[in-house]
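>> received
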Amino acid sequence: MRCAFAAVPAARTRTRLPANSDAVAAGSGTSLRPQKRRRPRSSIALLLLVCGLAGALLYFARAAFIPVGLALLFALLLSSPVEALHRRGLPRSVSALLILAIFLGLVGGTVNLLWDPAQNWLAAAPHTSLTIQRKLGPVARVMHRIDVVTNSAGHLTDAGANAGSPVLSVAATPNDSDGLLAETRAALIAATTVVILALFLLAAGPPVLARMSAAFASDAHASHALRVIDAVRSEVGRYYATIALINLVLGAATFGAMLALGMPNPLLWGVLAGMLNFIPYVGSATTLLILAIVALVSFDGFERVLAVTGTYLAIATIEGQIVQPLFVGQRLKLSPIIVFLALWFGGWFWGVAGVVLAVPGLVALKVAAEHSQHGAPLVAFLSPGRAKRRLLGAAGLKGRPAAKAA
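>> returned
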């Protein structure tokens, strides 16, 4: 009897559940669903404040941060061949110096090869402008009339505002040579900083990153950070190596097409097409506009102008719609809206350097988000098409057991 009465409280305590629990009975078992903790609003406001302050610092101190960003980009792109030479027994510092010297030699040789044609076109810019105005006579006359009307209205408002005030003419004599010397000095300092910092980053390699990560985080977090950095380096390096080969073929095809169509300096336009194609969407559109202007200046009939623009448009379409998806795939594909906004804000934020760093930054951010535990929303934001395919695949896998059970 004592055993029977003693078993009753034990059974009651065993079946008692908390009042605020979210228990769900499934068959004979009972599972408790944990409640999600919401992030407090104060932490969200603090995060927005920190992001705003970091953006302001990067904007106002861009003269110091732009060389650092470019050095990180070059170190990221050149780290794969450096590590390949290091695995073959060559010291990492020697490998870094050799790869960086080859890269700078290629850049310098390309600039030296295209310097004379580019200078000739820049020197002929006034004559080019007059030729364009002459060939676009009706459009130019309409624009000129609109400009005259706008200037007349502006003079009327200026005359009414300055009727009672004397006009003072001050001859401005800016010292152009000092400004050019200052810009040249700043450019040389920035280029030297980029080269030296990229060399240090390439020569340091993963061991220095491991020591730096271990100094500020635990071993688990440091190893995870190193895995993410290695994934970003590998994926971004492979992506841009493939894009470089594709752009090399695009430049060669553009050179052959312009040579066949009789365009002046076809090598210049081939190299320009290959270089600008590193910038998605904007680069090919800029090349098409430049080729249209050069063809308009060089040829008399509009048929050859249409032939030049149509040929390059066909080449760029084949590259963008067939070749690049075939070799690059959908893994690092980004939303066109996000890419365009990144290019726009990067150009407004850091100028040409911001445009250069916009797409590599997005690619690195997406790869880091893919290797993060909580990065699924960011991946879905950067490439909604891929996220949609994942959701559809997951829904199909979930629906199969239900269909079988039915």
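>> Residues 53 and 59 are 10 Å apart (CA to CA).
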